[in-house]
Amino acid sequence: MITHIKNIIAKAKAGGYAIGAFNTANFETTEAILSAAKNLNKPLIIQVSEKTIKYCGLATITSIIQSVDKERKIKVPIAIHLDHGHTLEVVKQCIAAGFSSVQIDGSELKYEKNIALTKAAVNLAKKRGVWVQGELGSILGKEGLVKLAHGLKPESYMTDPAQVKDFIRRTVVNTLAISVGTMHGAFVGREKIRLDRLKKIAKQAKIPLVLHGASGNKDSEVKQAIRLGIRIINIDTELRQAFIETLRKNLKGKIIKYDPRELLQPSIEAVRAKVEEKVKVFSKRN
């Protein structure tokens, strides 16, 4: 049941748990994510990146999400969100497509320019009652990890607690993505949530906090982050890993099946299982 993200997050905030935000890229991952929600009878966020929009087309991927939701008779609340939008144009397009939440990522910009871009997105979104997620501090990926190896200091890219209250006040964002040690991509063992920094940020923020790049973190660490105020947790890499690794195993040896539906079904099941695993961790009151 497609609903506004505010309904989902209000309950998570009251209940002291987090909502999983899972990236989709096609029908198969959409089917897996929404099936997991149905099986567990738990709400979640399904999100679309700019890369997926370029790959599928915005109208196509939105229609897939809505159609699977309707076809599978999903009764639990599902919110559709834009993940890491970098321009006002893509924000505008996703608002028009019916998303109830959009992220404007100005984290690579200077502080004042980030505020200006984020505030402009909020002004666009509030006319349609759409939530905006801002980002303060950078979340490293592969390129950032290389820089880290060459002496990049965490203080130079992580969220500065001293800026949080001012950023929220001036942009009026609904949710805030923060950088506290997680990374985009598969870097298990290199990621550690700086809980001390998160605690300081949470004291300054009166809005829901979002944890990106949480695929490589231990469940125990994630649960601690939820206790400190994280209300949305983004998962993408682990879903892609589950899909591709299962497909590789399924294609080993002599291929005797020529029906892509049969070949892809185990991958759908693997992603569904991974989503269910994550939702169970996030939705348990900590």
What does the model show?
It contains twelve helices and eight strands. The longest helix is centred in the last third of the chain and has 24 residues, at 260-283. Helix 2 links the parallel strand 1 and strand 2 (44-49). With 286 residues, the protein is of the alpha/beta class. It has a single domain, classed as Aldolase class I (TIM Barrel, Alpha-Beta Barrel).
CATH level-two architecture: Alpha-Beta Barrel
How many E-type strands? 8
CATH topology: TIM Barrel
In CATH, the homologous superfamily goes by the name Aldolase class I
Order of helices and strands: HEHEHHEHEHEHHEHEHEHH
Indicate the CATH class.
Alpha Beta
Number of domains: 1
Class by SSE composition: alpha/beta
Terminal CA distance: 26 Å
How are the strands of the largest sheet arranged? Answer: 1-2-3-4-5-6-7-8
Query: What gyration radius follows from the Cα positions, in whole Å?
Result: 18 Å
Question: Helical proportion?
Answer: 40-55%
Overall mean confidence score, pLDDT: 90
How can the largest sheet be summarized? 8 strands, parallel, barrel
Instruction: Determine the number of helices (DSSP H or I, runs of at least 4 residues).
Output: 12
User: Low-confidence segments, ≥5 residues, pLDDT <50?
Assistant: 142-151
Record the SSE blueprint.
Blueprint lengths: L4 H11 L3 E5 L3 H14 L3 E6 H7 L1 H14 L6 E8 L2 H10 L3 E4 L6 H16 L4 E6 L5 H8 L11 H11 L3 E4 L16 H10 L4 E3 L7 H9 L2 E6 L1 H15 L8 H24 L3
Helix pairs in contact: 2-4, 2-12, 3-4, 5-6, 8-9, 11-12
Notable features of this structure?
8 strands, 15% strand, alpha/beta, 12 helices, globular, 286 residues, TIM Barrel, 8-stranded parallel β-barrel
